[in-house]
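Hi L.,

You mentioned the student needs an example of a multi-chain input paired with its predicted structure. This one should do, with 232 residues in total across all chains.
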Amino acid sequence: AQKITQTQPGMFVQEKEAVTLDCTYDTSDPSYGLFWYKQPSSGEMIFLIYQGSYDQQNATEGRYSLNFQKARKSANLVISASQLGDSAMYFCAMREGPGGTSYGKLTFGQGTILTVHP
Amino acid sequence: SQTIHQWPATLVQPVGSPLSLECTVEGTSNPNLYWYRQAAGRGLQLLFYSVGIGQISSEVPQNLSASRPQDRQFILSSKKLLLSDSGFYLCAWSVPRGGADTQYFGPGTRLTVL
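Structure written out for the whole complex:
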């Protein structure tokens, strides 16, 4: 079974509007971390935002917020006020187990291509 | 601040030739280091990780190997490349302090095997 599922191969949004990118995950570990990365056409993976499984509040980083619904095992990324530069591939990833251990393997979803229209 | 370098940026190699990709990290000590491969239009697959000098763990059996000769240097190698080795190779680092242990990625190497 897929551990990270991103069901939207592609999404379109108008500039200045908000967009939600979906991510669901599957784990039996009570301690885990969820990450979102952005990959523009240049290829570099850029870290956007992190949510820990025990965090009480949804993570926010500037225009990025993470809609964390633990019971539903979803961790959707919300981008507010979209900009043309937000056009890229977006990946959701999960680390199973607590942070601070000697190894933190990430499992990635298949990604969602976001296109922002002017 | 920390930076991560990878070279070369692009590489075209014939089948059966050797491979050496290098990754170096600056501005941190004792990082965990990772090699990922990304096939076209796909997610990332973890190939190797290292928690210290000379300590390498492999995630998938393959035609590749990794080495960590220095604390902040990670090398991906192959003795004989296959067509299926083509892809985008990304190196990443993290410092296991607890909490997020976020992985930060390098610019990547695009490898084409012909």
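You could point out the following to them. The interface with chain A takes residues 32, 41-46, 49, 51, 57, 59, 88, 90, 92, 94, 96-108, 110 of chain B (CB under 8 Å). Residues 67 and 110 of chain B are 20 Å apart (CA to CA).

Best wishes,
N.
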